[in-house]
Amino acid sequence: MNNRPLISAIIPTYNRADLVGDAIDSILAQTYPNVEIIVVDDGSTDNTKERLARYGDRIRIIYQRNAGPSAARNRGIAASHGEFISFLDSDDLWLPVKLERQIDLLEQAGESIPCCLSNIMMRWSDRDIASFTISSLHPPLSEGIWTNPAEILATRFVLFNQGAVIRRSALAAIGTFDESLRLLEDYEFALRLSLAGPWTFIAEPLVIWRETAGSCYQNSKEDDIRPLRLMVQILQRQQRNLNGRSQFLNLQRSIENELERTLRELKAAERTNSNFWFQTTTGKVLQRIARYRRAIFRRSPGFPTMQVTSIDAFRSSQPKRADSTSDFDSSQELVSAKN
Length: 339
Description:
Layout: E1 7-13, H1 20-28, E2 35-42, H2 48-53, E3 60-64, H3 69-79, E4 84-87, E5 93-94, H4 98-109, E6 115-123, E7 128-130, H5 131-134, E8 143-146, H6 149-153, E9 164-167, H7 168-174, H8 185-194, E10 199-210, H9 216-221, H10 225-242, H11 249-272, H12 277-298, E11 308-309, H13 311-317
Parallel strand pairs: 1-2, 1-4, 2-3, 6-10
Antiparallel strand pairs: 4-9, 5-10, 6-7, 6-9, 8-10, 8-11
């Protein structure tokens, strides 16, 4: 009899009929024995419905009008039953041991840990590179406790959705995805989740991210202003979340500095896209200066590095609890997406 916790694997999809089956198959191939698969079709206009029908009762399908990836994930969360929640975009893949390794690690770490993030192999048409490498995450351990996710996320984007397994209790405390965002929604969500405390991590890539035409990533490359404007909005929101919370003074300064850097980059991008020659030229100069300043920061002592510890060391440092109440159930500090 299977007594492992149920994991809800949620796939939001939109017009990916030729790819969504690969994503589903990679979940069906998991070595972990207790998984429910929920596919949320976000208003596809291709033959996604017919492709999904082939899986019968091995998956649950939810159809909705097109509302974006955040709304699709939230719809899947609302319909799910798992103690743990995971997400897979419909053009990406999980390696077979992903869920088993992550749940094993979360169970060893204990209920105070809200999530586990694995490394992700990003597969472009011309090269493969790991997401941890891109984000300058170089843990000295192969797996364990990541003690400073909030400090890291205050200074750079870390690919999150495809590699994360999250406790439902953590979602109940911090809220779900912001449905007003159709880009960088995973970064905004991860920022809030990072305030819940340390995460577990696995340095080995257990996900394959694939560059595909028409993806949010591809679209963002064609418009450098929109992502920067959204990043400003997200950082300003995080500032408000941290305001008046003395335990996060250092983090507040990091967010403020990152916001200043992003505002400079936004100003440069807006000038570069001007119709006036002088403004465009000035913008290009400002962009080079902004890139140079960010490169200097990434090499400075102020650029935070990933701090990790072993599961055993973390558990031995934790105070003994008199009851089994989850830290998330009694949290007074976490802020939901609705704020």
